[in-house]
Design goal:
3 domains; binds pyridoxal-5'-phosphate; 475 residues; 20 helices; Aspartate Aminotransferase, domain 2
Length: 475
Amino acid sequence: MKKDDRNMIFRQLPSVDYLLESSVIKGFLLTTPRILVLRAIHYVLDEVRERIVRAQTEDELPDLALRSLVDQIKKRIIILSQPSLRQVINATGVIVHTNLGRSLLAKRVISRFNALAGCYSNLEYDLKTGKRGSRYVHVEDILMELTGAEGAMVVNNNAAAVLITLDTIAKGKEVIISRGQLVEIGGSFRIPEVMKKSGARMFEVGTTNKTTISDYEAAIVSNTALLLKVHKSNFQTVGFTEEVPLEALVALGKKYSLPVMEDLGSGCFIDFSRYGLTKEPTVQDSVEKGADIITFSGDKMLGGPQCGIILGKKEIISAIKANQLARALRVDKLTILALQETLSLYRNEKKAIQQIPTLRMICQSYKSVCRKAKKLLDMIGKVGNGTLSISLCDGFSKVGGGAMPLEEIRSRLLCISPGKFSATYIANALSGYNPPIIVRLEKDQVFLDARTIQTKELKIVAEAIKILSAKSTIA
Ligand SMILES: *Cc1c(COP(=O)(O)O)cnc(C)c1O
């Protein structure tokens, strides 16, 4: 298209003021805040302008009729009035997906929300003495019971757990850590940066691929406060490598009367090797091996709410509780409630795996995922007139959340090959659906992993695909 033609089309676009004067929009203004209406108008005009710029042929030009614009503005107002945080369907196959909210809470946990969120509670009230109590008592005992630790404390997330622990034990002092464990977790959480914030000085030992116990020992000076081990979480070093096992670090700590801390990252209570996966070090292992302080997330492989759990020796936990930072990093009552209920499911491992969605998805057998995928395909049925080509194929799910980075869990996927629509178009259309469906886009194909689609969501996904395939043209 010629530049002059384009300019002429731009001139046909109505102004914001003109649109505000139209009777339909005036009608909206009676029920909708002016700022929302304005935002919707600007959004639609911007989008239309963009489409004019992109248009290669006259057919691809957007409809500039007032009715069409007003219609789009109306749709936009509806979208803008919805709460921004809403349900999405995770078809990516990444179970603990940080961008999609990590763990789903168990049904029992949610029903306790219903019972308690609208009531006063004994959050910090000792019912026996009638005096002020501690919010942490509600999860302390069960954490100690499940892990064998001497003491427990909970803060806002694992990053906070690492921060407050280092601030308590190592402020102005040195912390020895292996160069192979200076990890970035994502979302710019870097171990060295957190240490700096806590006022601890980091002393790196060893090399990227190899650190030995004598590297640690040689680095100990009078100002050393802590030996720190960090779970590598989202990467693995392979080949010519050596890492010091926790037991050896604990023995060295004993020799020099230094505490040993392990940041487990994901932290799990279940030995997944019993379910055909690689063995991740469990929290109980670390307690048993004698780590003085252990930190991990509540919403990664544990499958609970966002929080950071700190376990360890009584004196250290007491010192952490007394730290002024504890107030700034403290958890809300809903977090305590969700954590307490999630933890109580762990009293029975079988029940935990059945009822905690994160565990259920990790452990779901390939056969059972196949059945779910087949059900989805059946629900979609025969679609369209060749607009979409849909089949089932094998693939892999991931644990995610920086846990088991190399673990590939065999899974069954719905594969949509591009025909009339490109793979990107299909992925965008599905993420624009209500509720949005987030898929995997690989090698110019769209994949929906049945493992992370919840059973009650299958119908929604099938419906979305049917609607998409019924479209004969690109809207
Ligand atoms: C994920 C992770 C963290 C951060 O935990 P959040 O709960 O996201 O704050 C810290 N350390 C390690 C090793 C991790 O894997």
